[in-house]
Specification:
By secondary structure, the chain is α/β, with parallel strands linked by helices. It is built from eight helices and twelve strands. The model has no long low-confidence stretch (mean pLDDT about 90). The chain binds adenosine-5'-diphosphate (ADP) and magnesium ion. The site of adenosine-5'-diphosphate has 11 residues, from helix 1.
């Protein structure tokens, strides 16, 4: 089954349960958005999927094309075709984007297989043209002095080059100006297609003005409380999250 499937996932940090029975399936070919108020556990979900060691999965399952994701090391998850967009490194002075991406692709090749320079640059320029990224960009050092928009451009180019089956983009809420939002949107729209499932995590309804998702999920207090089509995002913009929270509230103890 070509799907990323999360079933009844529970995740704790220390004693505290952050994700409390979350289920979600992202088939290849679809773009799903997760929205939700601050602190609802969106970034925690992204980190768990990436294999961050601080987060303990206490129950539930995650599979990628039928394979158990949770027992794979982070690098094995990447080899299976999972891409996490928040994983761009901090600044790497002296390492150009071109060389950084080449190393990233080389690292995912089977043992003994070499990436030819000519093939690599042909692919790089093809992707850059598709994403409308100027050539000069790749000779800059990774993230050094980058604007928010340039960081996003680097991230999207990385995604294009790694060509993942499933991409998870945690668009944190701070510091995304309209240019950065548009770069992300253009990238996602260019890279969406039948061979890829995309999970877009955002606090911002505004991003969904540029990316029309197949499904929108609202996450409140560690689980998906409501799912719907793109119109749900508009409803959230209009009404906020409180009405979802009220419906999601646990029955009062009597
Ligand atoms: P969101 O991305 O939806 O804003 P987060 O996943 O960042 O939410 O956070 C969910 C909850 O988990 C918050 O209450 C936050 O304080 C807590 N949390 C997240 N990461 C950690 C951590 N490393 N240690 C302790 N608490 C954490
Ligand atoms: Mg977050």
């Amino acid at each position: 089954m070509d799907e990323l499937v999360i079933e009844d996932l529970h995740v704790a940090i220390g004693e505290q349960e952050i994700i409390r029975g979350l289920s979600l399936a992202v088939p290849k070919g679809e773009v799903h958005a997760i929205m939700g108020p601050n602190g609802s556990g969106k970034s925690t979900l992204a980190k768990v999927l990436a294999g961050h060691p601080d987060y303990i999965v206490t129950s539930g399952s995650v599979t990628i094309d039928g394979e158990n994701l949770l027992e794979l090391e982070p690098d094995e998850r990447a080899r299976r075709g999972l891409f996490m967009a928040f994983q761009y490194p901090s600044e790497i002075p002296g390492v150009t984007i071109a060389n950084f991406l080449r190393a990233a692709i080389q690292a995912r090749l089977p043992q003994g297989e070499e990436l030819e320079a000519t093939d690599y640059y042909a692919k790089l320029y093809e992707k850059m043209d598709a994403l409308e990224i100027p050539r000069a960009f790749t000779s800059r050092s990774v993230n050094e002095g980058f604007s928010g928009g340039e960081k996003k451009r680097c991230e999207i180019l990385q995604m294009a080059m790694l060509d993942p089956s499933y991409a998870i983009l945690d668009e944190t809420d701070s510091g995304l100006d309209i240019d950065a939002l548009k770069i992300v949107a253009h990238g996602v729209n260019t890279l969406r297609g039948p061979d890829r499932g995309i999970l877009l995590i955002t606090h911002y309804q505004r991003l969904l003005n540029y990316i029309v998702p197949d499904q929108v999920h609202v996450m409140v207090r560690g689980r998906i409380e409501l799912s719907g089509d793109k119109d749900l995002a508009l409803q959230l913009e209009e009404k906020g999250y409180d009405w979802v929270k009220e419906e999601a509230a646990e029955p009062a103890l009597t």
